[in-house]
Amino acid sequence: MRLLNFSKLFTASISLSLLIAVAAASKSPTVSSESGKFRGKTFVSRNGVEYEGYIGIRYGVVPERFEVSKFAPILEEVQDVVEFGSSCVHTHFGGTEIRVLGKEDCLFLNIYTPKADDKKRAVLVFIHGGGYTFGSADIYGANYLIDEDIVVVTLNYRLGIFGFLDTRDEMAKGNMGLKDQNLALKWVQKNINSFGGDKDRVTIMGESAGSASVLLQVISPLSKGLFQKAIALSGTPLNTWAFAETTLDKAVKVGAHLNCDVSSSQTLVTCLRSKPLDKILAAQSSLFTKWYIDPTFVFVPTMEKKNSKNPNPFLHQFPEDLMERGDFNRVPMLITLCKDEGLLIHSAVILRQEKLMNDLNREWGRVAPITFHYNQDPILKGHTKEVSIKLKQFYFNNEPVSQSTAENLTNIYTDVWFYRGIRETAIRMGMYTDIYLGVIARPHSDFSTLQLLGITEVLGVAHADDLSYLFSNGNLKDPLPLLARKQTSSDAEFSKGLVKQVANFIKTGDMKIQIGTGNSGTWNPVSKSELTSRKLNWLGIDNTPSVLINFAGSRAEFWDQIIKPDLSLKEEL
Questions:
Q1: How many Å is the maximal CA-CA distance in the chain?
Q2: DSSP sequence for 469-497
Q3: Three-state SS string across 29-41, please?
Q4: φ and ψ at 171, to 5 degrees?
Q5: At a CB cut-off of 8 Å and minimum separation 6, what does 185 contact?
Q6: Does the pLDDT of residue 573 top 90, yes or no?
Q7: What share of the chain is helix, strand, coil (3-state, %, to 5)?
Q8: Which of 14, 25, 117 is nearest to 78 (CA)?
Q9: 3-class state of residue 378 by DSSP
Q10: How many angstroms separate the CA atoms of 404 and 410, rounded?
Q11: Chain center to CA of 504
Q12: Taking the CA of residue 45 as centre, how many other CA atoms within 13 Å lie in the half-sphere pointing to its CB?
């Protein structure tokens, strides 16, 4: 019997592997663009249609921690972009252990396209949420949206102190995360036509902090001309958690905790650049909590100083002032709200933890200003005692927080964290551009983002529950149940209808819908008479859409009685 020639066998095996690899590469979609050549891979959509994905494209680099990002260098060789790039540095949501996720080298974007051809398709650029503190683009897949023949882009941006440190001078100018987003939008303008998109038909969309980011891009002069429409899902810079005049005081506190010399911004930033990621994240996560997990988000967008060393700031005036004057990029906007936002933040947890309920009931005067954020409100923070009394009276009729007042607790969180600021945003910006308002009113059959908190019941339409209707799971390795892993037939049917409506806005700027059984109609922008009266009509987005006349009107009027339209305090307080 002859012995096998293992040397020849090994050589043949390697040759066969190379041939297979070459054959596979030749079938892989490849794009040549202004910023380089990229080889991607194919996916299959919900409707069974094959499409192309270019994932993990490096769009930017950061010269040094806390500096403004720049375009990534252009490489001559073809880059394989078939694996997600690292997420930006953050900690695991909802956990007590400080576990570092992601890397500082994280400025990647993902492009999903029906085909990288010469057809000019409408483009959607999605900015993820997470309170400017956690999250990643790779979570969001395009299997649903791609069936509407649009190009979908998702992107990473720096988070927490790494993206929003602000020293009020050139050492850390602030808003680095927003400038990352802006850089990605510029990259899209340079390259998206090579991927089958149209740079002149770009819509930016975001959810939660991503939604507030979208509106900040709308009001920033640096973003003029980078997009033509905007979609804001559950967030605005007028929400008290989403914007601060400065974060310098918080940076000093972190620095002092880490034994930095905080006598100057130069010594502070130099020291923070040398500290390990886990130490910085631990300080960011632990130093500022006053009750439960509040204040939840610490390092957020801020108002920059405009001077000779920062002649073109991303934002150097308060967002509400720019909105009021119409000093923003006047693009058509779709703004939505989940009906029961407050379930995720935080009513569902409080109602399941006796200690938290007891804290609210026994220490309302101390806890309410913290968890309902009016101790951060520029107007209300000097009147927390009076506001606390009014809130308890209006939302609870002075009854204790309990299971019997569960809906009341959800409503107050919905209003103070989301609805109040979103409504005010619409009133201010709607005077200058078309704004469509919608309320996602249909809960999923067997899924909710409350699973992030270990709650399996579907209690309503919680914050971020709308995302599972719009996005498939992108990175299935991600342990967070932010998106439903599967859809029931009824959820899929509703999802397809919502995706079609959103895609129609992305393509045309109109919102044609079915209002009532068998009746076609148009979802109209908020009218000037509604804006003047401050009684806004929203579309209730459910199995059968309906117009919600003066949605949550009594709750809106309550806040109008506390704060005037110009955001100055009423005399009775």
A1: 104
A2: HH-EES-TT-----S-SS--HHHHHHHHH
A3: CEEEECCEEEECE
A4: -65, -40
A5: 125, 202, 204, 217, 223, 226, 227
A6: no
A7: 40, 20, 45
A8: 25
A9: coil
A10: 12
A11: 21
A12: 21
For residues 200 and 228, is the Cβ–Cβ distance under 8 A? yes
Residue 341 CB burial class (10 angstroms; 0-12, 13-18, ≥19): buried
User: What six digits make up the tokens of 251?
Assistant: 């940076």
Q: How large is the average pLDDT for residues 423-434?
A: 98
* Nearest CA among 188, 181, 247, 184 for reference residue 210: 181
Residue reference for tokens 């919900």: 46
- C-alpha to C-alpha distances, 165 to 129, 160, 178, 265, nearest whole angstrom: 18, 8, 12, 11
Please answer whether residues 422 and 559 qualify as being in contact, where contact means their C-beta atoms are separated by less than 8 angstroms: no
Does the pLDDT of residue 454 top 60, yes or no? yes
Single-letter amino acid, residue 220: S
Q: Which residue is it, tokens 């663009």?
A: 33
**Dihedral angle over CA of 134, 127, 484, 84, nearest 10:** -80
What is residue 52's three-state secondary structure? strand
Q: Give the pairing type, strands 229-233 and 197-207.
A: parallel
Give the DSSP letter string of 545-569.
-EEETTTTHHHHHHHHHHB-TTSPB
289-321 residues labelled b (16+ CB within 10 A) or e (exposed): eebbebbbbbbbbbbbbeeeebeebbbeebbbe
Helix (H) / strand (E) element for 12: namely helix 6-27
Angle at 245 between CA 241 and CA 250, to 5 degrees: 75
Cα 293 to Cα 94: distance, rounded to the nearest angstrom: 9
Query: What's the pTM?
Result: 0.93
Cα 70 to its chain centre, rounded Å, is 22
Order the strands of the 36-39 sheet from edge to edge.
Answer: 30-33, 36-39, 79-80
Nearest to 479 by CA among 99, 53, 81: 99
Rg (the chain; Cα; Å): 24
Of 186, 164, 183, the closest CA to residue 175 belongs to 164
How far is the CA of 289 from the CAs of 46, 284, 298, 355, in angstroms? 42, 10, 9, 16
Per-residue pLDDT tens digits for 120-139: 999 999 999 999 999 999 99
Distances (CA, A) of 466 to 88, 411, 438, 545: 24, 18, 12, 15
Contact 111, 150 (CB under 8 A): no
Query: Three-state SS string across 313-337, please?
Result: CCCCCCHHHHHHHCCCCCCCEEEEE
CA atoms within 13 A on the CB side of 560: 13
Judged against a pLDDT cut of 70, whether residue 94 lies above it is answered with no
H or E stretch covering 53:
strand 50-58
The pLDDT tens digits for 252-291 are: 999 999 999 999 999 999 999 999 999 999 999 999 999 9
285 vs 276: CA distance, rounded Å: 15
Strands 121-127 and 197-207: parallel
